[in-house]
Amino acid sequence: MTTTVPAPRASLDLADAVRDDGSLRRFLRGLPGVDQVGLERRSATLATRSIKKESKLQALDMAISMIDLTTLEGSDTPGKVRSLCVQARRPDPDHPDVPPVAAVCVYPDLAGTAVDALRGSDVAVAAVATAFPAGRSSRAVKLADTALAVDAGASEIDMVIDRGAWLTGRYGQVYDEIVAVKAACGSAHLKVILETGELAGYDDVRRASWLALLAGADVIKTSTGKISPAATLPVVQVMLHAVRDWHRATGELRGVKAAGGIRTSKDAIRHLVAVNEVAGPQWLTPDLFRFGASSLLTDLLRQRRTQALGHYENTDRIGTA
Hints:
Elements: H1 11-17, H2 21-29, H3 36-47, H4 53-65, E1 68-70, H5 78-89, E2 103-106, H6 111-118, E3 124-129, H7 139-151, E4 156-160, H8 163-167, H9 171-185, E5 189-193, H10 202-215, E6 219-221, H11 233-250, E7 255-259, H12 265-279, E8 289-292, H13 296-309
Parallel strand pairs: 1-2, 2-3, 3-4, 4-5, 5-6, 6-7, 7-8
Helix pairs in contact: 3-11, 4-13, 5-6, 7-9, 9-10, 10-11, 11-12
C-alpha cells in the first residue's frame, strides 16, 4: 500500500525545508499524495482485527494508561477538577490494580488546581492554550495563554493551529506560531492540534503533520474534540506515518494524540492495533500515543471488569469519581 511519506534523505533536507516561506511551501507541496482508496481499505482491515482473549486485559490497561482525562467546559470549577484528579489517580477504586491515566487536561486558569491535586502522582497536568478551541486571537494573547498554564505548573500544553492561516496557504505564519509557542513552553511538552475535521483532506493532514513536526511539536493531535469528524482511523494512520517517517529521518521520537470520537473499548483497541502496525510497537506507550477521550474511560473500565468477572456490569456500578 502506498500511504507512506518517503522520509527525507537526510536531516539537512529538513533544515532546508524551513529556510524561508517558499522553501516550506515547496517541501509541503512536494510530499507525495495520500492514496485515499488504499488508506481507507487498510483502515477497514484494521477495524476487523481482534486480539486474543488473554491479551485483552493488557490492551485495556494500556488504553487506560494513555488517556488524557479532560474537562473543558465554561462551567468547570476547582471542585470539578479536583474530582477529576481523584479519578485520574485511581480510575476504579474497587480495583486498585487499574493503572492511572496519563494526564488531566484543563483550561490554563485551572492548571494550578490540577497540579496541587495530582502532586506526588505520575499523572501529568496538561492545559489547552492559544485561544482554544478556535485559535482566533493575536499571537501575544496566545503566548500569554501559554505562559499562564506553564507558570501554573502544567507539564504539557495543547495548542491549536491557526486554521484560517493554514487554509489560506500562509504556512510560514502557522510554522512561526508553533515555534513561538514551543519556546514559551520551556520544559513542558507541546501537543499541536491540527483540527483535522477542518482540513481539506488526507493530503492536508499529512502536510499539517509535517509542518508541526518541523516546527517542534512533541506530539501531533487530531482534534479539539469540538469539531466532527475528529479522530478517524484513516486520519490517525496518516499522522502515525508522519511520526514514523520523522523518526526514520531524524532519529527523534514524536507522538500522536487521537482526540474526539473514540468512545468504546473496541475503537481504542483498533487504534492500538494501528499504532503497532503503522508506526511500530515502540509507540505503544503513553509518552508517544494518547487518547483524548474522557468518555472512553467508563467503557474501558466496564470491559476490564467483564474480563475479570465473566459478565457485564451496569455502567453506574463502576466506581468512578
